[in-house]
Design brief:
By secondary structure, the protein is an alpha/beta fold. About 35% of the residues lie in helices and about 15% in strands. The chain folds into two domains: about 130 residues, NAD(P)-binding Rossmann-like Domain (Rossmann fold); about 180 residues, Rossmann fold, CATH 3.40.50.720. The structure holds NADP nicotinamide-adenine-dinucleotide phosphate. NADP nicotinamide-adenine-dinucleotide phosphate binds next to α5 and α7.
């Protein structure tokens, strides 16, 4: 008998066909986040689930799926999944690393440049008919080139951002729980510093840590207070890594200069204070959102799902102790 799989939201047709050739598929055909009850009903009787970061796969959800063997997340971050509960139940958890690294790094850099050079303000200015003449001091921004970039979390995406920074001849600092190897530091031209030093010295601070209890509000009022008044904060990781209310205060009072944000504490809600600030560039969590990469993410998630259901170790197993 084929294993039963629940697909929580529409995915690319080619991948759906592939999964359907090996599994009995139950799926949500509407492109919206399911209510808890709908998620529970979908999971019932399934051995596998292909889910997204909007699906909260906690203990309660797992209790509704006693036969569940694999949770395949279409994302590299898996803070939407209670991994400890999954491991306890022998459920494999998988994610989609690597395939989205360069695309997300591109987007972090896009936000950095857009915030530094006030691109969104400039676009609005040009469209609105306010541009009457060229002026020497019109919409002056900050140079990215030769600036100091502080990367918090020098993992896959953090390193890809550092590689881009080299092209802009930036000074690269990084902070994190572990120092990278001398080879990596040399390749990236990155210097390991304490977080406080990074915050004090950087013109741009870019966040690339996973969301977990230790990184929730990693950037709050005390950290923002250490940053330069001319500094720009970039967040493409997860919203709760930043205390959004503290960020609004810091931006409002000019304690830092600007921000480029792809992620928010209560998505899709955005703090109303951010919406009215001109010195913030906002995006609706599209860091990995290129056509090529989103397809690769879904393909990889399906590969993980099918491998697990056929008794193999999936290529991107998160809870190695699971089975
Ligand atoms: P990764 O390779 O695991 O990198 C994360 C890095 O953060 C690791 O070097 C890790 O160090 C470090 N770290 C962990 N805790 C830290 C702390 N307290 N302080 C400083 N550094 C810490 O993950 P990745 O593939 O680069 O992805 C990073 C995150 O980006 C994901 O978790 C996801 O949330 C987010 N993301 C967002 C989008 C988007 O669309 N906006 C797209 C892709 C990914 P150790 O390895 O030493 O623990």
């Amino acid at each position: 008998m084929q294993p039963a799989v629940f697909i929580t939201r529409p995915i690319f047709e080619s991948v759906l066909t592939q999964i359907a050739s090996q599994c009995e598929v139950k799926r949500n055909r509407e492109d919206r986040t399911l209510s808890r009850e709908e998620l529970f009903a979908g999971l019932a009787g399934c051995q596998g689930v292909l889910c997204q970061l909007t699906d909260r796969m906690d203990r309660e959800a797992m209790e509704h799926a006693p036969e569940l063997r694999v949770i395949a997340n279409i994302a590299v971050g898996y803070d939407n999944i209670d991994v400890a509960s999954a491991t306890e139940r022998g459920i494999l958890v998988t994610n989609t690393p690597e395939v989205l690294t360069e695309t997300t790094a591109d987007f972090a850099f896009a936000l950095l440049l857009a915030a530094a050079r006030r691109l969104v303000e400039a676009d609005q200015f040009a469209r609105s008919g306010q541009w009457k003449q060229w002026k020497l001091d019109m919409l002056l921004g900050t140079d990215a080139h030769h600036g100091t970039l502080g990367i918090i979390g020098l993992g896959r995406i953090g390193r890809a951002v550092a590689r881009r920074a080299r092209g802009f001849q930036m000074i690269v600092l990084y902070a994190g729980p572990r120092r990278a190897s001398p080879e990596v530091e040399q390749e990236l031209g990155a210097r390991y510093v304490p977080l406080e030093t990074l915050l004090r010295e950087s013109d741009f601070v870019s966040l690339h840590v996973p969301l977990k209890p230790e990184t929730r509000h990693l950037i709050g009022a005390p950290q923002l207070a250490l940053m330069k008044p001319t500094a720009i904060l970039i967040n493409t990781t997860r919203g709760p890594v930043v205390d959004e209310a503290a960020l609004v205060e810091a931006l409002r009072e000019g304690r830092i200069q600007g921000a480029g944000l792809d992620v928010f504490e209560r998505e899709p809600e955005i703090h109303p204070g951010l919406l009215v600030l001109p010195n913030v560039v906002l995006a609706p969590h599209i860091g990995s959102g290129s056509r090529q990469t989103r397809l690769r993410m879904v393909e990889l998630a399906a590969e993980n799902l099918l491998a697990a259901l056929s008794g193999q170790v999936p290529p991107n197993l998160v809870n190695r102790g699971g089975h």
